[in-house]
Amino acid sequence: EKKLEQNDKNSVVGGVGVGYNDQGELEGEFNLVRFKCLVQLGLIKCISNICLKYHKSISQGNLFTLLDILENSFDYAYSFNKNIAFRISLQKAGLLKQMSNQLPSLLTQEILALSNYLQVCTEICSDLEMNSKSSKEIEKKYLDVVYFVLNAYITKEAYVSSIPTADRDLVRSEQNKELLSWNKIIINIIHSFESFGKLKIQEHLPQFLNLFIELLVCESREVREPLKEFLLKYCKVGVVSDD
Fold first, then answer.
1. Which of 84, 145, 214, 237 is most buried (most C-beta within 10 Å)?
2. What does the pLDDT look like over 226-241, one tens digit per residue?
3. Which H or E run includes 241?
4. Which of 50-54, 65-69, 83-87, 116-120 is the least confident region?
């Protein structure tokens, strides 16, 4: 994110200058970046398929490297999308004439990388044939990302309700679209917890309770309902249920 902020006035996703004098050159550079983004989406899908199909035969080091690629792809897209001021400056520079009512976005990359990362981690953690040490380390990576995602969702929703007047309609529209995409991620996270089994839930749920409680009052009923069912199933007042 810091790297993006440093390059706000000069580049985007590795080289599109906002300050170009030649509009044709600017559009050409942006089209190249767009092509690279499409390649990135293909890479995400390829890595995910490799991990899901062959994780039992891939060495621990190589498996972690592939997971890191997915996580880094998500991190970059998330940092770009979070930089609203930069996205507005790109939109005002006329980079997307055919999408003048939208902000430049890496939402597809953000969601695809994140959902595939979580899916791969869940699959590996629930595979009883996996090396217990590898599974435990991947479980920790998964839980760290889940904590970040839940917190980011709560922060994003709070931001939507406090968007400043300037460019409010455009930004709010984009943020609401992003929240809708994130809803599916949050729901999948809730269901993935169930796949860990009761003992794992008892072990890990306490560290997420505060975030889950905050999510119970989020705007999306699509998120609230499965979360409510999950908490009623596994929690009593103040403790994780043993029932």
1. 145
2. 999 999 988 864 444 4
3. none
4. 83-87
Give CA–CA dist 124/130, Å, rounded. 7
Instruction: Specify the amino acid at residue 14.
Output: G
DSSP label at residue 236: E
What is the tens place of the pLDDT at every residue in 37-61?
A: 889 999 999 999 999 989 888 888 9
Judge contact between 172 and 160, C-beta under 8 A: yes
DSSP secondary structure letter of residue 205: G
- Using CA atoms, how far apart are residues 210 and 198, in angstroms rounded to an integer? 19
* Residue 105 neighbours by CB distance under 10 Å: 19
Closest CA to 45 of 112, 105, 107, 138: 112
